[in-house]
Specification:
Length: 576
């Protein structure tokens, strides 16, 4: 309930629109009640031959007026309440993104992408019942209840206890029973559908690899089991809805008959007894949405809980409330850094000391798992060190504005991260206002211009889901071009020439040197196993088990006969 109240409070900005929807819903319900009651009165009075000419005229005119008002009010209410609800949902989606963004990629890596998608889409959609139904349904029920009480008190007071008693029973007990029955299957439906989406996303994104490894049948079986679970929960919800629907369809005529009988027994003439019965019937109609809200309670509550859990997850680095002033220099330093990934049993970085002064070119090498990529993740403030400090321009990174930190660092990561979009869209992630000439310059530097010109639509060619329609080497060059386009003073490159042929690698090394030479303040940290790129660096370090074990100019390290020389026995000839 606390979660639901929290999400209701998020719609504060839409309160006047929600209030307008509620007022129109109340007016529509009262009009419906008046229409039914008057119709009952006119029909019964005319049938009994007691209706006076004046009464018939008033009754007939009133009926026509109410019959016209009812659809107009209903339409206006739907427009107002849907408008308010959609605005609230749009705001809620932004809230979810705001909650998720600081978690990326650190704590968010624990969440499967399909599950995250389910939160942003299905869970947010499940809350529409909260915004769409909550206020309008309650307002309509309350207004109709008061109107019916007044009408019956004035016309057929004997029917009052029966009609109101039965209504309150229907409007309170049935929704409560529906909420109770839907709680467990509703929660299961939300969790199972999120799981099914996560399995489906994994299947789609990794289908080729899964097929190649013969693991597709296993993932399909998991998807199948999640879907069966989801359908089972949905069936339970439908069965519960049918049960409550059947009770509701009995309750309507029952209130009608009870209202009529009680009024008649109290001495009311047939026309007023009919009025009482039909007023009860119209009143009962407002109980239906209450029961529907009860049916959705389980799903709405679970979705709200899942969204709140996302916002309650602590980011790897909390943004400084008052960030330290942006430092003047771009020196990057790791001082005694120790870091263990959440849930891991051994540290990825263990006493790392490393400096990348402004204008320097540092190559980082070492065996797989030595911690090379992890140091980049800490530099980008994706994670905070457990001990020691990462400093930019002398200031600890967590004290700085994360946006400022990331604007000074450009990354071409080990995994060529491309979005499903065009070449231009992928490049402009680095600089949204870049013109075409700037895009081509960056592509030329990364030796990617030739292949992009040969694509069917050049810059506007769609490169597929995660760049799936271009080769691994082409993807790598696009990511490098994107890092150049960003034009940040510190360039972080993680295996930039992996998967490229020797000529392209040599071209890239040359253009990288030109780019770095163009501004003496530009610095680069290059993680690589390729002698061609190592030769670009003023200094190289060898990492082992999360720390630096050797540091020096590549030529000197090669001559020293230590770890570097063991990794690159033919360095001198290969670096040429
Ligand atoms: N997200 C993660 N969660 C848990 N452990 C991780 C995670 N990422 C990396 N590790 C672990 O941290 C250690 C260092 O990994 P890292 O990726 O930094 O090594 P690396 O030197 O870049 O290796 P490679 O050259 O293979 O990329 C490894 O033992 C790895 O298994």
């Amino acid at each position: 309930m606390k979660d639901l109240l929290f999400f209701l409070s998020l719609a504060r900005q839409d309160r006047w629109r929600l209030a307008l929807g509620a007022a129109l819903a109340a007016a529509s319900a009262v009009t419906g009640l008046a229409l039914m009651a008057l119709a009952g009165w006119v029909a019964a009075a005319a049938g009994a031959g007691t209706v006076l000419v004046m009464g018939a005229l008033i009754g007939g005119g009133g009926l026509r007026l109410l019959a016209l008002m009812r659809p107009v009010l209903r339409y206006s209410e739907r427009m107002a309440s849907h408008d308010a609800a959609f605005r609230a949902l749009a705001r809620l989606r932004l809230w979810v993104f705001d909650a998720a963004a600081p978690l990326a990629p650190g704590p968010l890596t624990a969440l499967r992408s399909g599950d995250l998608l389910a939160r942003v889409t299905r869970d947010v959609d499940a809350l529409d019942a909260l915004y769409m139904r909550m206020t309008t349904t309650l307002a309509a029920a309350l207004a109709a209840l008061i109107a019916a009480a007044v009408l019956l008190a004035l016309t057929a007071p004997a029917a009052l206890p029966a009609v109101l008693g039965l209504y309150i029973l229907t409007a309170l007990v049935l929704p409560a029973a529906a909420a109770r029955c839907s709680a467990a299957p509703g929660a299961r439906a939300v969790s199972a559908s999120a799981l099914a989406r996560a399995e489906a996303a994994d299947l789609v994104s990794g289908l080729a690899d899964l097929k190649a490894g013969g693991a597709d049948a296993r993932v399909i079986a998991r998807l199948d089991s999640a879907s069966v679970n989801w359908v089972g929960a949905q069936r339970q919800l439908n069965a519960s809805a049918r049960r409550h629907g059947a009770i509701l369809s009995l309750a309507g005529p029952l209130i009608l008959i009870a209202g009529f009988a009680a009024a008649h027994a109290g001495g009311a003439p047939p026309a007023l007894a009919a009025l009482a019965g039909f007023a009860g019937f119209a009143l009962f109609e407002t109980a239906l949405p209450l029961v529907q809200a009860g049916e959705q309670y389980g799903q709405t509550r679970t979705a709200a809980g899942r969204l709140r859990a996302l916002s309650a997850t602590a980011p790897a680095i909390a943004s400084a409330v008052r960030p330290a002033p942006a430092p003047a220099s771009h020196d990057l330093a790791f001082e005694g850094v120790r870091f263990t990934y959440p849930g891991a049993d051994k540290p990825a970085l263990n006493g790392l000391d490393l400096t990348l002064p402004e204008g320097a070119r540092l190559a980082v090498t070492g065996a797989s798992g030595a911690g090379k990529s992890s140091l980049i993740r800490l530099a980008l403030a994706f994670y905070a060190p457990d001990a020691g400090a990462v400093r930019l321009g002398g200031a600890p990174v967590p004290t700085l504005d994360p946006g400022d930190v990331r604007s000074r660092l450009a990354l071409a990561g080990q995994r060529a991260e491309l979005l499903s979009g065009t070449v231009a869209e992928n490049l402009r992630l680095a600089r949204p206002d870049a013109n075409e000439a700037a895009l081509w310059d960056a592509l030329a530097l990364a030796r990617a211009d030739k292949f992009v010109r040969e694509l069917p639509d050049g810059l506007d060619t769609w490169i597929g889901e995660q760049g799936g329609l271009i080769s691994g080497g082409q993807a790598r060059r696009l990511v490098l071009a994107r890092a150049y386009l960003r034009d940040a003073p510190v360039l972080l490159l993680d295996e930039p020439s992996e998967g490229l042929d020797a000529d392209t690698e040599a071209d890239i090394a040359e253009s990288l040197a030109v780019w770095l030479d163009a501004d003496p303040r530009r610095s680069a940290l290059i993680i690589t196993h390729r002698p061609r790129l190592l030769a670009l660096a003023h200094e190289a370090v060898v990492m082992e088990e999360g720390r630096v074990i050797e540091r020096g100019a590549p030529e000197a390290l090669s001559a020293r006969g230590g770890a570097f020389a063991r990794l690159f026995p033919d360095y001198s000839s290969e670096a040429l």
